[in-house]
Amino acid sequence: MSDETGSQDIPAGSSGGAGGGPRPEPLRFFGTTWVDHSGGYALRRAAVCVGSLAAAAASCLILRFAYEGLQIADTGSFVTVLVVVMFAICSALAFRTTWDGFGGHPDPERQARLRGLLAIGFVGSLLAYFFRSLTEAPGEKLHREEYEAARKRHDQRTSRRTGNPSKNAKGKRRNG
Fold first, then answer.
1. What is the DSSP letter of 167?
2. Tens-digit pLDDT profile for the chain (176 aa)?
């Protein structure tokens, strides 16, 4: 059993346990509680919501100290405006990239290219996490769609294999 989520350490998508079929993929901070909203799901979602907002607020405070450092250093208005615009643009890009990541799997090459911008715009990522956690666990919708599709495929595969094939009409004609 995993200590943090209370779920078994069996890879997602593998068939484990007595029920068989696909297993739900765990989400960060939620484990597999997103499937049936049990195991303190609401409390976890509230904690993620408050935590991401608190982290964003603390990050903005740190950025304010950096801005004041630029003012004390008397670097000039051009450098100050350039830094503020850079953080604003990078935060907007990070917000959009993180938000889009909740609805689909991001392209790994694009993520690698944007890694620096996303690191600078960390406030945007935290805010995207906050806003998504107001309605659902971040990434829950995507994982739910994939899990339900996998369950449907599994149910179709197992329902087709019921019965003894030698007892059907084609089997009787060949044998008889």
1. G
2. 444 444 444 444 544 444 678 888 888 888 888 888 888 888 999 999 999 999 999 999 999 999 999 889 988 889 999 999 999 999 999 999 999 988 888 888 988 998 998 899 999 999 999 999 999 888 888 888 889 999 998 888 887 655 566 666 555 555 54
DSSP string, 107-158: PHHHHHHTHHHHHHTHHHHHHHHHHHHTTSSTTHHHHHHHHHHHHHHHHHHH
Whose tokens are 């593998």? That residue is 14
C-alpha span between 56 and 94 (Å, rounded): 13
Q: Is 166 helix (H, G, I), strand (E, B) or coil?
A: helix
Predicted TM-score (pTM) of the model is: 0.73
> How many other CB atoms are found less than 10 A from the CB of residue 44?
20
Short-list 52, 46, 45, 40, CA closest to 7:
40
Nearest by Cα to 32 from 15, 54, 7? 7
Diameter over CA atoms, the chain: 97
d(CA 123, CA 121): 5
> Cα(67)–Cα(41) distance, rounded to whole angstroms?
38
Q: From CA 90, how far away is CA 84, in angstroms rounded?
A: 10
Q: Residue holding tokens 């089997």?
A: 171
